[in-house]
Specification:
Elements lengths: L1 H20 L11 E10 L5 E10 L4 E6 L2 E9 L1 E6 L5 E4 L3 E4 L5 E5 L5 E10 L6 E2 L2
Antiparallel strand pairs: 1-2, 2-9, 3-8, 3-10, 4-7, 4-9, 5-6, 5-8
Length: about 140
Amino acid sequence: MKRNNILAGAIVTVVMMAATIIPGSASAQLKGLGRTDLQQHDLSIPGREAVQVLVDFKPGVTAPKHSHPGEEIIYVTEGVLEYKLEGKPPVTLKAGDVLFIPYGVKHEVKNVGKGEAKELATYVVEKGKPLVVLAK
């Protein structure tokens, strides 16, 4: 029984941490990282949904390594962001650049510019699963 309580507490902690960096929860934001939830809709593909958000990064801020239960499509709207996808060399994108992140690929993002940076993130994910899985 005690082990189940500890496990439940750990799961809640991970979910709360995940919600601070990526949409899907109304919890507090990670310092220097903000988001605006734009839309969330079921898709014609059974068990899938689309989620779209605008993510704001203060200078020097990094979104910790994580993955998603589906694909992420990025469009940088402002500033300069460095993406580190597991198994690939880092890529730096500026406003107007795009990036596709495949299902389950662990990645992190850092604002490497001098000013604020923003990305439009569109997720095509499995419905009912946590949007973010923090890497170990």
